[in-house]
Every structure is written in C-alpha cells, then in structure tokens.
Amino acid sequence: MAKYPFSEIEPKWQRHWEEHRSFRAEEDASFPKEKRRYVLDMFPYPSGAGLHVGHPEGYTATDIYCRYLRMNGYNVLHPMGFDSFGLPAENYAIQTGTHPAVTTRANIDRFRQQIKSLGFSYDWDREVSTCEADYYKWTQWIFIQLYQRGLAYESDAPINWCPSCKTGLANEEVKDGECDRCGTKVTRKRIRQWMLRITAYADRLLEDLDGLDWPEPVKQMQRNWIGRSEGASVVFTVDGHGDALEVFTTRPDTLFGATYMVLAPEHALVARITSAEQKAAVEAYVDGAAKKSDLERTDLAKDKTGVFTGAYAINPVNGKKIPIWISDYVLASYGTGAIMAVPAHDERDWDFAKAFGLPIVEVVAKPGPDGKAAPCAGEPSECTAADGVAVNSGFLDGLGTEAAKKAMIAWLEEKGLGKGTINYKLRDWLFSRQRYWGEPIPLVHCPKCGVVPVPEDQLPLTLPEVSSYEPPGTGESPLAKIDDWVDTTCPTCGGPARRETNTMPQWAGSCWYYLRYLDPSNPGAFVGRDKVDYWMPVDLYVGGVEHAVLHLLYSRFWHKVLFDLGLVNTAEPFQRLVNQGMILGEDNQKMSKSRGNVINPDDIVREYGADALRLYEMFMGPLEVSKPWMTAGLVGVTRFLERMYALGEKPVVDAGPSAELLKLTHKTVRKVDADTASLNFNTAISAMMVLSSELARLDSLPRAAYEPLVLMLAPYAPHLAEELWEKLGHRESLVRAAWPSYDPALCEDDEDTIVVQVNGKLRGDFKAAKGAGKDALEASAKALAKVAEQLAGKDVVKLVVVPGKLVNFVVR
RNA sequence: GCCGGGAUGGUGGAAUCGGUAGACACCAGGGACUUAAAAUCCCUUGUCCGCAAGGGCGUACGGGUUCAAGUCCCGUUCCCGGCACCA
Predict the structure, then answer these.
(1) Do residues A334 and A411 both lie within one domain?
(2) ipTM for the complex?
(3) Are residues A468 and A329 in the same domain?
C-alpha cells in the first residue's frame, strides 16, 4: 500500500472550502432554534512560539462535532479569533523596541496559517482580534457600562504586586503566592487601583452554576473560589472606649466560649484601643507584619504569633471582659478583619490560646446515648470543631449545634447585637494594570467633576505611541509619561483634566469575544440583539481547565451584567463546557522548551498530513484526560488513512454487500453516530478501522458499505474524505452531505452468544436462536462437554438464566 | 489539612443496566511475498503451571454485597489537580 498524497489532497480541499466559503454561517430564519448550534473554542493567545499540539486537540474535537452537525442538517456557528493583548508581546517590545502591534500581527498571521493548514471548518469572515481598536472600542464601552452601574471603583487598599511584571495582579492570578505568569513571588503594594465589584454577583455566580452542563471539577473550583459561608455578625464593645467591634463567625452557637478577640494587624481600631504600656510592642508587631509578603505571613505562621493590645472587649452574651489581641493569623481582607476566638472549638484559636496561656472554655460537648451532654471538668483536653450539644452556654444549654446557631442569631437580632450574615471568600477584581499593551481605561480625572467616562462618540480611546514600553515600576503605567495624551479636557466641564493611565488586564477582551463573533463588524453596537437571539447561548465550549477561576469566572460576571442591562438573552454565556486534557510530552511530563519534549504540529503535518494529526490526537484517548504524545502512535492512524485511500482505488459496485457486511456497516454507523454525538471520538475511530479492514479484503466495494464509511470519515479526516467522495462520482462537497443512517433491525444479530458459567466461572459458550426459552438454554448449556464435566457428581443448587446473555449453574 | 479527579497488559486505551476483562492501536516476536530491503498481508502477544488437552491467578491494596464485581458498598495506599490560618 502506497503512501497517499496528502500533501496534494489537503491544500486542494482547503482551497476548495475557502473559495466556496463552505463554512460561512448565516442567520437563516428557516432553521428553527433547535437546529442551530454555536460551538466555540477558547481562542488562543498568539505567542511567538507558534501553535502547540495542545491547540489542535480541542480544535479538532469541536471541528469534528461541527462537521457532524452540519451533515445532520444543523446551522452551525464555529468562529475563531485571537486573544491578542498580553505581556509577552510587550516584553519583547521592551527588549527590541518593536511595537507590540507589529509582533502580535505577525504572530496572528502565523497562527492563522497554521490553524488553516489543519482544515478546521471555521467561518473566517468572523475572525476577531482583541487588540484592534474596532474591537477594544467595545471592551471600553462595556467597561463604561460597568462604571455607570457602580461596578467599577477606585481603591487604594494593598494589592498583589509582581515585582518582575511590575504590575498589580488579581487574586485569581496569584498561585501559591507567586505570579501565575512568571513565577515571581508576589509582594504587597499600596497603589491606587480600579476594582470591579464582582462580589456583587457572588450569590448569582454561585447559584447559576447548578444549571450549567459543566465538568464537576470546574464547578467545584468556582464554588470554592466564591467560598460562601453562612454565619452571623456579632457586635462586641471595647471596654472603656465605647467603640463597636464587629466580627463574623460561622459558629454563633459558641459565643459563650469566646474568651478573647483577635484583630488583624491592619485593623483600623488597633491604633485607637492600644494601651500606653502595650503601644511599643503593638507597633513593632504591626510594622513587622506590614513588611511580610502574603506568602511569608501564611507559610511561616504555622506557629502563632501575636501581641496583646491592652484593651478588653465585652462579650455581649455574658458581659465578660475578654482581652483583645492582634495577630497575623487574622486576615484583614476577610469578614471584618477581626474575630471572636473560641479556642475550645477552633483549631487556630486553640493553638493561639495554648501559645499565650489564654483561657479555654468548652461550650459544645459530645452527646451521650441519651442525647444529653455534660461539660467536662475544667479546661478541655483537646479542641473539637464537631457539632454536638451546647454546654456552659446559658440559654443555649442542651440545644444541638444547628438549633443553637438559630437560637443565638434570633437572640442577637432581638437585642440588636448582631444578625445572620453570609460571607464570601471572593474578593473584588483588581482590574487595572500598570502596563502598556492593554485597553486604555476610558476615564478622565477632572479636578472639578471627578471621574468622568470618555463619551461613547469618542471611543475607541486608542493606545498612544510611546518611546519606551518599560513600566516605570512606580505603580504608573508607561502611558503616564505621554503628557500630550494624559493632558486632556473634561468631557463634562471642558476644563483641563488628566486621563486615567492604567490599562485593562489581559482578561478583559476575552470576557465578551464570543458575543463579537456574532456580529464582528457592527459599527454601532458591541453586538446586534437579533444576532444574540439567533445564536446564544454557546452550546458547546471546549478548552483547557486552567481558566476555571479566571476567564470562565470573569466572563460569567460580565455576561450577567450585560444580561441585567437587557443586552443579552441569557444569564449564562456557556451552557456546556468540556475541558480537553493536556497533551504531555513523550516523557509523560508537561511539554516545555526547557525539557526539550515539545512537538511542533507543523512538523507532523509536513510528515504525516493534517488528517493524520487530527485523527491521532482524537485516537489517543478520551478528550477530557491528559495523555502522553507518542509519535510512534501516528503510524497506526496513518495505516488506517492509507487503507482508506487504497479503498478509493478499488471498483465500487452497486450489488448489495453480504448479509454479514451489511450488518457490520449498520452497526458501525450506529456506533460512530452515537460516539461522535457524545464526543467519544477514540472509540468511533476504532469502529471505522474495523469496517475499513473488512472492506480492504474485498476486490470490489459494495456502495452500500463503502459510501457510509466515507461519509463517517468526513468529520474526522475531511480532506481525504472529500477526495474519496469525489472519486465516488459526487460533484458536490460532502460538507453538507447527509450523515449516514442505520436500520436498527439490521444491527441485530440473528443469534445470541450465550455464555455458560459454573459457580460464576466461564466454562463455555454456544449460539442460540433469538428469543430461545430458559429451558432450551439450560438444556444447550448442559449439553456442552466442558460444562457436563464440571457438573458431574454435583448438585445444582441454583440456576440463573439471563435470556440472550448467559446461563450460570451454582453447584455444591 | 480540606475539596475534586484518578489507578485496567510492555505502552495509549476498550468494556450500555453488575453478565465472555483487555476492543482498536503501538511496541515486540514469528511467517508469507521479494535476489534483497522497504511497504503490505497473515499469525502470536495479561500472567503462571503444562508437550498438549486443560487448569490456576488476574482490573492499586484489604474487606463486603451478589448466582455473578473493573463496574455497587466500607476501609487503605499511591498519583494528579485546586484551595489552603477565610474565623
């Protein structure tokens, strides 16, 4: 079998599809809603390294699915674009002086050419690139909508700062205390920032996850990230000061056990309440904490440290005076930055109390068999956070933990000392970056009018040219150095004003790109509402899991804001999400330049062809799991493609296939149809291999068996399938040819294979007519020599007969 | 520590409802064709005992439910990912 000429076939059909605009999607009203599908890939950042073999994995999966849907009569929207603002282009500009737009456009051209060489069925007329002004005009416009709704605000709280990237980072961009991009340890810095109020959507971002067809791990990661916890806020009074000290607790039932309080070192009350004797110690501790990075504070703080302020609070429930300490185990940024400490029932409070000799009072005890509980004598010997029965707790005594929580909240609310509260770990989104290559934030600072948005008719606010891309590192962006850009007039009063010089983070453009695809060149709106109604929501979104709490959270947030503004038709953008697994190197490690295990898709296409690469990546294993690359494995799919090509050289006859071949054909169609629809591509390919091997034995091919195989191959290896389809005498491309159908009756075998077991062990099998009765099956089973041997001299104590499946003799 | 996912031959992986474990491939070995090689085709290929017929064992480990467990239940180990002093 000769190598097949993929290097001629593949460009030929790619040209054909391009010339015929084969994949253009139009809003054709004759397709009912249920016959429309929006299938989306996570668009790539066009890095200088070119396409990675991981990209075509997801792209091939969606492409197969789209081609399958088209052949089944669906109107399919399948676009591609580029997420093109980002640090690599800017860092390259710093080194070389080349404008990031120049390198970015060159990289996009290379990516586009590489993607096209794989024969994906994108509608290229809808391509978007987030760094182009006619795109980011609308990113800026959406930002202004957020601003006007009060969802964007200025803050000067300490933030995560990457000293290497010289920019602030969102919480989502910090992993293990390091910058997600460059791995540098993140420090804390206090600079003026723009924040987006994503916390206002915390509850909806959480609740709406339930209705999404997403992988459970991603939902779980978002749930954890949002981190909802129910509890109560309780107001203590500082003794002798009259200051209120509010805390959040998930265990209001343990309030009687609160024996001290702890403030975060940054808490506003610290300076006010510290006593003269403790002043020096407290200030030293606060200074020390301020110098530590977040990582140092969390990592090194396994041993609890802290200082007494000299002040006391009054526990509202029993009037007791309890000391107020400061410690960095209390985070300024969660809850109120202060806690009531219940050392008997909280591990951290226990450690702290033990370290500083603070009192420990048991208020929850393990109930006995009668459901009642008695407090232990003196201090408890160990800490427990488990539920139990309230003791030493006045009016709560005898109540179970859940009931005690409710009772305490009711009591607090009645006395005006607190209330039931819900807290989230999710923080607002730090949205400004002190870098050049991003969307300018379209705001103006006017000494008279304050912050004023750039009017819509002045958008886009384009990036100015700069002489140096180097970030000053002062907390200003390179834009701050361009005086004639920064100095402007106030859109409201016309007086002198200054532009905001921060830019948006790389995530901004990807928050809404799936909407721009619907209407990519609309000059009057970010998207036309009719287009939204025609296509949205996205029916299938495929991409890596690494964006679980970044892009996928941010874009849900923006989408909900747009939904509340009445601009989109659904509360959620992506109905179904599938994460493709990572493709590892042959050494089972993550592909990286430094390990030298990177596979370049161009090399594979040149040597084996695009169809082989597509097929191989789908044949490696299930889409969702990570799996190692093995170039040797490509020969398997290549042999299959060569066999298919060789079939195309054989005469095709209209005479019917043998009954056996006809059955195999229908079974294969059934299997490939079901597996393609459910994205189980590896087993679909395996089924096609089996049918192709059978056909390869024949001298002439019955059309009724061969044509369905070519059609089924089309989504998987579209170039070769088009070539074979043409050889079959068809004039039209098979892009919209009808997907083969199967006759369920023809998939059934005439006979069943009945397995015979003795005591559950396989001892033989036989063929039986369909619908054979239990008695007949038993008789046939007993007639098998091996079975008879096993049964000889033994009593059959039980007989299990599953018609059509098996006979099992249980003997003694 | 907490949460989520996983563990099947030498390798990647199959296995609808609990009903023939290892489909389809890779690798390896053998054979056919050939002057030879490549390519192709055919055969073998979980493991142990056995010349064979046949039999024992086998889906990370230990239990359990069942006529029957890779699949269900309980416990353990290891691997991967996420979060991590969040009160």
Answers:
(1) yes
(2) 0.94
(3) no
